[in-house]
């Protein structure tokens, strides 16, 4: 696991998930199709939980893959849930996650969301002074008090993540300086039980040292803020942002090394604050590796010297494949799924059904030269930010089917949208009459 470079290694056989061939999954569930490997999800979570300081709790960020069965699987394996919308909250609750293991985060919470959390005693991660006032008002109105952790926008930034937070003007969290300048904050919100601090430094971090340095600085900041504001450290959430290697030249985090560097920070802190709950919140890292987006090639064609494989699904289900944080198109790892294919390889543009040139899953991808209609092509490492973060309604194709393979058994966890569902919310008026 130490070094898993992303390569286009030649396909040598038919590809399978836990012994079930992709061609069988495609025949059974249709394409385009997302397939998640539950064993992979379990391995990612256990790889951390079994090594991390025993006091550390891992919360799954539903944002990365909000499917209710994915949430239920992670819950069964010991993860808790971090949600950011009313529907995500209900998803986690129906997946069986108890309220005390859910936290609600997000910069634009509605009164309805705040109310649901206060009623069920779901921990709120508060992102602004205005939100804190709303939580106080809602809790007082309900004759209760609300547990709240303050999200801090730290004054420091740590380099090395795809999307750096901290040290910048952001809509997320409350600036460290503003908190330090407001020691009376707790007193002004009698219906709020301030219980600790949260910091999320950014996503797609692929350097073990950066993860550890972030964590150390966040724990340190929580101590300083606690002392200044008189807020007890019931809980400190150090965020996460652990990445997944997608592109050539990227390397996966080594979980052993990551934990080896993290644990001393947690141990030091826990020695000083034995009662504090320590939290990491992870999305991509837990589910990213597990997913394959499988599309079927409909046509192959040549245009001005370039080969195109036009498939039945594209960026409408996998917007991330367009490219993350880069103006140059970088490809996710892709492979032919249903057969070995010729040894001779050539560069293929793998495109989808949308009427836009941006609908390119992979540009100049090395695939067998004999790629043909009917073949299945898979985009790997697609378990996070897949259809949920894609324009699934574009051209009215709708959501693809999703399948979870767990303990050798493939289960449908979301059926694909059909035309009736796509049209159900549209309202047809009759414009043939000339009356008003
Ligand atoms: C998106 C997000 C996460 C999950 O991020 P990943 O990179 O998928 O792990 C966690 N915490 C916060 C605050 C987020 O916005």
- Low-confidence spans: pLDDT under 50, at least 5 residues? 1-5, 7-11
Through-space gap between termini = 68 Å
Distinct helical segment count: 11
Over all CA atoms, what is the radius of gyration?
24 Å
Instruction: Report the portion of residues in β strands.
Output: 25-35%
What is the domain total for the residues?
A: 2
CATH domain topology of the largest domain: TIM Barrel
- Count of β-strands: 22
| CATH class call of the largest domain | Alpha Beta
Bound molecules: pyridoxal-5'-phosphate
- Biggest sheet overview: 9 strands, mixed
- Helix fraction bin: 25-40%
Average pLDDT number:
94
CATH fourth-tier homologous superfamily of the largest domain:
Alanine racemase
CATH architecture of the largest domain: Alpha-Beta Barrel
Please state the structural category.
Answer: alpha/beta
Shape: globular
GO molecular function, one term: diaminopimelate decarboxylase activity
Keywords: Amino-acid biosynthesis, Decarboxylase, Lyase, Lysine biosynthesis, Pyridoxal phosphate
Active site: 355
Domain Orn/DAP/Arg decarboxylase 2 N-terminal: 41-287
């Amino acid at each position: 696991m130490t070094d898993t470079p992303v390569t286009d290694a030649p396909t040598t056989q038919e590809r399978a998930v836990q012994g079930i061939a992709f061609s069988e999954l495609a025949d059974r569930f249709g394409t385009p199709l997302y397939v998640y490997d539950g064993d992979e999800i379990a391995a990612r979570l256990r790889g951390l939980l079994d090594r991390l300081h025993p006091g550390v709790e891992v919360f799954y960020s539903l944002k990365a893959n909000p499917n209710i069965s994915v949430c239920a699987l992670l819950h069964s394996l010991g993860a808790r849930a971090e949600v950011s919308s009313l529907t995500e909250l209900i998803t986690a609750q129906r997946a069986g996650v108890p309220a005390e293991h859910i936290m609600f985060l997000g910069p634009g919470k509605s009164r309805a969301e705040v109310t649901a959390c206060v009623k069920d005693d779901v921990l709120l991660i508060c992102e602004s002074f205005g939100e804190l006032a709303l939580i106080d008002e809602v809790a007082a109105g309900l004759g209760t008090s609300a547990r709240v952790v303050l999200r801090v926008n730290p004054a420091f930034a740590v380099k090395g993540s795809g999307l750096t937070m901290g040290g910048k003007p952001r809509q997320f969290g409350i600036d460290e300086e503003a908190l330090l300048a407001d020691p009376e904050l707790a007193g002004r919100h009698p219906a709020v039980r301030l219980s600790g601090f949260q910091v999320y430094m950014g996503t797609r971090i692929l350097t073990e040292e950066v993860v550890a340095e972030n964590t150390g600085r966040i724990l340190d900041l929580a101590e300083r803020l606690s002392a200044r504001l008189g807020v007890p450290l019931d809980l400190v959430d150090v965020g996460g942002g652990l990445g997944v290697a997608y592109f050539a030249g990227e390397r996966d985090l080594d979980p052993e090394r990551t934990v080896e560097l993290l644990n001393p920070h947690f141990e030091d802190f826990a020695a000083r604050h034995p009662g504090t709950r320590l939290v990491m919140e992870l999305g991509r890292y837990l589910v990213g590796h597990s997913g394959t987006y499988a599309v079927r090639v409909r046509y192959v064609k040549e245009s001005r010297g370039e080969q195109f494989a036009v498939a039945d699904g594209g960026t409408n289900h996998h917007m991330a494949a367009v490219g993350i944080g880069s103006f140059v198109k970088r490809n996710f790892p892709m492979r032919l799924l249903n057969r070995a294919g010729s040894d001779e390889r050539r560069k293929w543009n793998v495109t989808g059904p949308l009427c836009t040139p941006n609908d390119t899953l992979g540009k100049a991808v090395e695939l067998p030269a004999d790629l043909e209609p009917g073949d299945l092509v898979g985009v790997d490492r697609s378990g996070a930010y897949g259809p949920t973060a894609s324009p699934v309604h574009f051209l009215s194709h709708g959501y693809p089917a999703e399948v979870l393979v767990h303990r050798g058994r493939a289960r449908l966890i979301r059926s694909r949208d059909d035309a009736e569902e796509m049209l159900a919310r549209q309202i047809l008026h009759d414009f043939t009459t000339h009356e008003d």
